[in-house]
């Protein structure tokens, strides 16, 4: 079991190491806030790495998350030594092929950390936009 440091998650819906979790909710309910909290807690408590793949994100959202990571100490400015999170983005205005590759690029980064023997949390936000981009490419 992965101890997330978020009491309600650890008590009601604990995360299994090596498992998959879906985080579903409407707009503005705090999904990204919860993801940020998970990344922060895992980096500080477990020394693990996190990979965030933002598929079809707005430029502002990606920029905000990047700066929040720096302010919380999870990442160093410029992604230098000591950073604990990798951020991969494909923005809304990019072609569907580029957006579809964002999640796969994030997965490759996560696999690299895993191959180095590190614990990794891999986040894909937004899985709907990922499947939508895939269907646009195949059409």
From TrEMBL:
<feature type="domain" description="ATPase F1/V1/A1 complex alpha/beta subunit nucleotide-binding">
    <location>
        <begin position="5"/>
        <end position="139"/>
    </location>
</feature>
<dbReference type="GO" id="GO:0045259">
    <property type="term" value="C:proton-transporting ATP synthase complex"/>
</dbReference>
<keyword id="KW-0813">Transport</keyword>
<keyword id="KW-0406">Ion transport</keyword>
<dbReference type="Pfam" id="PF00006">
    <property type="entry name" value="ATP-synt_ab"/>
</dbReference>
<keyword id="KW-0067">ATP-binding</keyword>
<protein>
    <submittedName>
        <fullName>ATP synthase beta subunit</fullName>
    </submittedName>
</protein>
<dbReference type="InterPro" id="IPR000194">
    <property type="entry name" value="ATPase_F1/V1/A1_a/bsu_nucl-bd"/>
</dbReference>
<keyword id="KW-0547">Nucleotide-binding</keyword>
<keyword id="KW-0139">CF(1)</keyword>
<dbReference type="InterPro" id="IPR050053">
    <property type="entry name" value="ATPase_alpha/beta_chains"/>
</dbReference>
<dbReference type="InterPro" id="IPR027417">
    <property type="entry name" value="P-loop_NTPase"/>
</dbReference>
<comment type="similarity">
    <text>Belongs to the ATPase alpha/beta chains family.</text>
</comment>
<keyword id="KW-0066">ATP synthesis</keyword>
<dbReference type="GO" id="GO:0046933">
    <property type="term" value="F:proton-transporting ATP synthase activity, rotational mechanism"/>
</dbReference>
<keyword id="KW-0472">Membrane</keyword>
<dbReference type="GO" id="GO:0005524">
    <property type="term" value="F:ATP binding"/>
</dbReference>
<keyword id="KW-1278">Translocase</keyword>
């Amino acid at each position: 079991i992965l101890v997330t440091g978020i009491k309600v998650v650890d008590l009601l819906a604990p995360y299994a190491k090596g498992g998959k979790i879906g985080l579903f909710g409407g707009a503005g309910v705090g999904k990204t806030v919860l993801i940020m909290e998970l990344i922060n807690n895992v980096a500080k408590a477990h020394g693990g790495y996190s990979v965030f793949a933002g598929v079809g994100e707005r430029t502002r959202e990606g920029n905000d998350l990047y700066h929040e990571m720096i302010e919380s100490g999870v990442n160093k400015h410029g992604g230098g030594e000591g950073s604990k999170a990798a951020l991969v983005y494909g923005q809304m205005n990019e072609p569907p092929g580029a957006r579809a590759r964002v999640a796969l690029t994030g997965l490759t980064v996560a696999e690299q950390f895993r191959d180095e023997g590190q614990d990794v949390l891999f986040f894909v936000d937004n899985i709907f936009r990922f499947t939508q981009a895939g269907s646009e490419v195949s059409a």
